[in-house]
Amino acid sequence: MCDPRENALIGRSAKKRDEWDVRALCRLFRLGELKEIWHSADPARNAFLLSTETYVQLRREVVRQKNVLKAWYRRGGIMVRGSTPYSEAGRRSWLEQLPAGPLREGARAHYAVLDALCAQWDQAWARLTAQGRAFAEIARFEAMPGMGPAGAHLFSALVGDPRRFATRQQLWRYCKLAITDRSSDGKPLGYQRLERRGQGELKAVSYHTWKGAIVSRDNEIKRWYAGSLARTGDQRHARLNTQRKIIEVLWLLWLRGAPYDPQRFAGDPPPAHLTHEVKSLTTAA
Length: 285
Hints:
Number of strands: 4
Helix content: 55-70%
Distance between the termini: 30 Å
Number of domains: 3
Radius of gyration: 23 Å
Oligomer: single chain
Mean pLDDT: 86
Shape: globular
Strand content: under 5%
Strand order of the largest sheet: 1-4
Low-confidence stretches: 268-285
Structural class: mainly alpha
């Protein structure tokens, strides 16, 4: 299996025919230009990944349905704030604000859809955690400050095997945390930005871990972020440095099979090349 985005010779060719595509594929294969896509050979890992994708998709549907409810209330001239409109107790008072008739009945129908999605989401989480008990690295991930059960399960499932990445830079690129730099004849082609291809869920895991650690009491991630902020003088760069550090530590824990050590996280300085990032990033993290 290869990445079709790398095969522009075939996908974007002005002349396309099965016979010509075969010749082009053979030529790319002979030159070693087909980029292989990694697939796990472990059935348990594949089942775990499928359960994770189901969980993530249902979570997105729940968020989407909540946004539909917000828009429905706005049609009745009511601005929804907070999470009370979605709870069993809070929704009653919000429903009473809608005029009786189609608006209120429509809101009840949307609530029924939301409740069904939430029930399926809870079941998906139960299946995910049940399968996750077979993978010992998840418990080690959860020892990191700010890392919750959901983030630990997602990192384990979406990475699959830490040995598939030869360097931490490859893993950062997979997590959409690497910097893309395009130039021609020594001249830059546009601004530097974050990688757009990869697993956005892993980037979100590192962000929520950073955020959870920052709002908690004193911990190694909080101190490492403060040190990176002092060196770079930029909050975004310091946060991205910390997110990369979180991903790197999780990866090394998994590779070495070692327990989480707060002292080693705090004692390792950030890579030198990460403290001199260009301040012209145009893509928000």
